[in-house]
Amino acid sequence: MKNLLVFTIAFLCLTSNAQKHPFPANLTFSNGLMAASKSGQDAVNNYNLWKINFVEQCNNGRYRVKFDNPGETVSEGIGYGMLLAVYATDRTLFDGFWQFYKDNVNVNGVMNWKINGCSFGTNGYNGATDAELDVAFALIMADYQWGSTGAINYKSAATTLIAAIKTHEVEANTFVLKPGDQFGGSQITNASYFSPAYYRIFGTFTNDTTFWNAVAAKSYTVINNNLTVNNAAGGLVSDWCQESGAYSPQASGYNNQGRSYGYDAARTPWRIAVDYVWNGNASAKTYAKKASDFVRVNLGGSANIKDGYNQNGTLSGQWHNATFVGAFACAAMAGENQAHLNASYNDLNQLNEPNSYFNQTLKTLYLFLLTGNFYQPQQATLGQEQFDIEKATVTIYPNPSNDIFSVTAPEKSVIAVISPQGKVISQQQAKAEVTEINLAHQAAGLYLIKITNENKSVTKKVLLK
C-alpha cells in the first residue's frame, strides 16, 4: 500500500520567512494516481523555458507575462505567472507580478484584464475572474511559503482580494461565479474559471466556509447541468453557458457562440482535478473520470486529442497541443487507469511549443500538478489570529505508516495515542507545529490520535502496518 500524504489546512499563525517547500517539492497526493514516469525535473525545465520566453522585467521591480501579442499583458497571464512563481519559490518574480497587478486595478480592486506592455496603458477594462482566483490563491501560497512579515503582507493582500471577488465576482444570492466584475452570473458563466479547490481554502483563510463551500457546490451544479442539458459526451462542457446549463444568448460574440469545448472549456478538467487530488471530492472525481474516459475510450488515447470538440464528442479542432492534452492528463489522475495516465503524461511532456503563450504556460502548470508541485498549503492563516480546533482539520501523515506518523497541530496541544484496546499508550505536548509519533514497537492495527487544545479536541484514526 502506498504512503499517503495528506495536505490539509490547519489554522496556524505563520511568522517565519523561510520557505516551506523547495522546488521541486515532488509531493505525493493522498487521492488519485500519479504517472510512473513523473519527474520534478520536467516541471523545472518547463518553468525555466516559460520564464525565458514569456517574462519581461519592467521598471521599479515590476514583471509582466507576454501575451499572444507580446506587446500586451493580460491579467490571466499575471495569475498564471504568480502561481508558477510561488511554487517555484521565485519570490522576486512573484513580488514583481503582484506589483504589476496592483498598478493596474480598477475601482473594484481587480486588475483590468488587458494592459499595453509595461506602459500600464489599459487596452481592456475591468476584471476577468479566473485571474483574480489564481492571484488570490497564489497570495495565500506566498503567505504559506514565506510568511507576511516582509515588504509585502501577502496575508492582508489575499484577504482583501478575496473580499473583492466575493463582492463583485460572485452573483449575489445564487453563488454563481461571474466571469468578470462587470458582467455575468446566472445568464452567462464560464466553467473553466470554476476553482472549487481554491474556494475551500478561501473559506478557511477568511473564516467564511459556508459562503465559499456554497460557491464550490454551485460550480458542480452548473457543470452537471451543462453536461445533462446538452447531452454531452464525457466531460465536454461548453465554453460558456447559463446557470441552467443551457447555452447563453449573451455568448454570441465568442467562438461558436460559446457552445463548443474550445480553448476556454479545455482548462476545466485541470481545475476540477485539483479538487480531487487535494481534497478527494466525489463530484470532482466523477467529472474528471468522465473527461479521462472520453479520451481513453472514445478517442482511443491521448495521442488522438485535438484542440476542439462539439459537446456531442464530434471533432471541431485540428491541432494536437498542450492546452488540451495536459488538462485531460490531469483528469487521468482520477481516471483509475494507470497505463492511460502514464501515456497521457508522456504525451504532454514531449510536446514542444515553447513560443506559444497559452500552450507553454498551461503545459507548465499542468506538469506542476502532475509531478506533485502544485499542492495546497499545509497551513493557512485565518484573517483572525485564533485557532479553533473544532473547526480545523489536523494533518496526520503518512497514513498508513510502518512506524512514524507526523502530526500537524498547534503548539502546546496535547497529543495522545490510544491503542486498539482503548489504552492510552503515550501522551505528549506539541513543542512545534509538527510532532512525530513513533509506533515502531507497537503491534500493527488501528490506533487513535487525540489532539486536545484549550479544552477542545479532535480524534483521528491511523493505521499502523
From TrEMBL:
<keyword id="KW-0624">Polysaccharide degradation</keyword>
<dbReference type="GO" id="GO:0030245">
    <property type="term" value="P:cellulose catabolic process"/>
</dbReference>
<dbReference type="GO" id="GO:0008810">
    <property type="term" value="F:cellulase activity"/>
</dbReference>
<keyword id="KW-0326">Glycosidase</keyword>
<dbReference type="InterPro" id="IPR026444">
    <property type="entry name" value="Secre_tail"/>
</dbReference>
<keyword id="KW-0119">Carbohydrate metabolism</keyword>
<dbReference type="InterPro" id="IPR002037">
    <property type="entry name" value="Glyco_hydro_8"/>
</dbReference>
<keyword id="KW-0378">Hydrolase</keyword>
<dbReference type="Pfam" id="PF18962">
    <property type="entry name" value="Por_Secre_tail"/>
</dbReference>
<comment type="similarity">
    <text>Belongs to the glycosyl hydrolase 8 (cellulase D) family.</text>
</comment>
<keyword id="KW-0732">Signal</keyword>
<dbReference type="InterPro" id="IPR008928">
    <property type="entry name" value="6-hairpin_glycosidase_sf"/>
</dbReference>
<feature type="domain" description="Secretion system C-terminal sorting">
    <location>
        <begin position="396"/>
        <end position="463"/>
    </location>
</feature>
<dbReference type="InterPro" id="IPR012341">
    <property type="entry name" value="6hp_glycosidase-like_sf"/>
</dbReference>
<keyword id="KW-0136">Cellulose degradation</keyword>
<dbReference type="Pfam" id="PF01270">
    <property type="entry name" value="Glyco_hydro_8"/>
</dbReference>
<feature type="signal peptide">
    <location>
        <begin position="1"/>
        <end position="18"/>
    </location>
</feature>
<protein>
    <recommendedName>
        <fullName>cellulase</fullName>
        <ecNumber>3.2.1.4</ecNumber>
    </recommendedName>
</protein>
